Backbone:
């Protein structure tokens, strides 16, 4: 632990002083965990309705299957809310995270997502074959920049259209699924906000999402979910955070509570990101990089570029203008 950067040690001390973290969930293949008792009549924590006014026939994913979740479900999301989220905010969250899920080799319902040039005409594509990445470009339209010396290939992926605040609601929804039943009373308005298909409503004045990118080869079948709640007697920081790590990315989002966050109204927040355990090999891949994402925009974002860098051990060319790379 002694070789951790000073900022990481300071951030760990900050969170330890201000927050109590719940036991993290380490989600791995083969594991099955259903949150909430299966007792009848069931109650939906999202819309507040009970059986038989609402039904609970579908298996409700506690986080979308797109992140590789095949084992974490909940008993307290009704079918109507499940469909509302699945057709709305989870699509926006899916589009926002898709480039990262591809690069991290995260298997959703239909495998690792392929990313290709938008539009109907032929063009570049990035897909994962199961053993390595297959990168395709056309001679008249070079897409990849290859550096044999550093063994890196650089390119720019594009993001499918998404509404930032809808993606944000999708993230907050995962946190609100995981919080203990006793905490839900503090988040009534937050539940209403994530269910509201009108994305124009402003909810929290400050809404930081910390994104940490961990470079290097990371497991693509481990998801770590963690909740943090402010310690009693502390009032200068947001009440609750939710942290979600998958592949090469860690996302940390504020779970706003109208009643519990009154004490930070009008104050400018200054928080470090929750420290991540670090990279597999910092000398080779560099240190984790933290950015603060602003996902409060209400207008659709179209054609956003996402820069990507692959390191490779070996590369084989196949057919003219095709390249196959082991990432
Ligand atoms: Zn419901």
Residues:
């Amino acid at each position: 632990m002694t070789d951790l950067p000073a900022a990481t040690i300071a951030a760990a001390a900050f969170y330890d002083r201000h927050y109590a973290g719940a036991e993290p969930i380490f989600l791995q293949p083969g594991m099955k965990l259903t949150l909430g008792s299966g007792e009848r009549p069931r109650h939906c924590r999202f819309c507040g309705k009970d059986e038989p006014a609402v039904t609970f026939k579908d298996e409700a994913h506690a986080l979308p299957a797109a992140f590789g979740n095949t084992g974490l479900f909940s008993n307290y999301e009704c079918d109507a809310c499940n469909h509302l989220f699945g057709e709305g905010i989870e699509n926006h969250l899916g589009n926002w995270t898709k480039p990262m899920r591809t690069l991290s080799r995260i298997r959703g319902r239909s495998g690792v997502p392929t990313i290709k040039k938008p539009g109907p005409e032929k063009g570049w594509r990035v897909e994962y074959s199961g053993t390595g990445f297959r990168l395709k470009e056309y001679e008249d339209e070079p897409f990849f920049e290859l550096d044999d010396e550093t063994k890196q290939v650089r390119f720019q992926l594009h993001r499918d259209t998404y509404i930032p605040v809808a993606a944000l609601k999708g993230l907050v929804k995962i946190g609100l699924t995981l919080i203990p039943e006793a905490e839900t009373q503090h988040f009534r308005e937050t539940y209403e906000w994530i269910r509201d298909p009108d994305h124009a409503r402003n909810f929290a004045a400050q809404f930081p999402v910390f994104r940490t990118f961990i470079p290097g080869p990371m497991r693509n079948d481990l998801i770590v979910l963690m909740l943090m709640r402010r310690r009693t007697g502390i009032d200068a920081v947001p009440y609750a955070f939710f942290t979600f790590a998958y592949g090469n990315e860690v996302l940390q989002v504020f779970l706003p509570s109208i009643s519990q966050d009154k004490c930070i109204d009008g104050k400018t927040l200054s928080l470090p990101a929750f420290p991540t355990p670090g990279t597999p090999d910092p000398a080779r891949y560099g240190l984790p990089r933290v950015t603060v994402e602003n996902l409060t925009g209400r207008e659709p974002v179209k054609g956003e570029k996402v820069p990507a860098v692959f390191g490779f051990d070996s590369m084989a060319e196949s057919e003219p203008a095709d390249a196959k790379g082991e990432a």
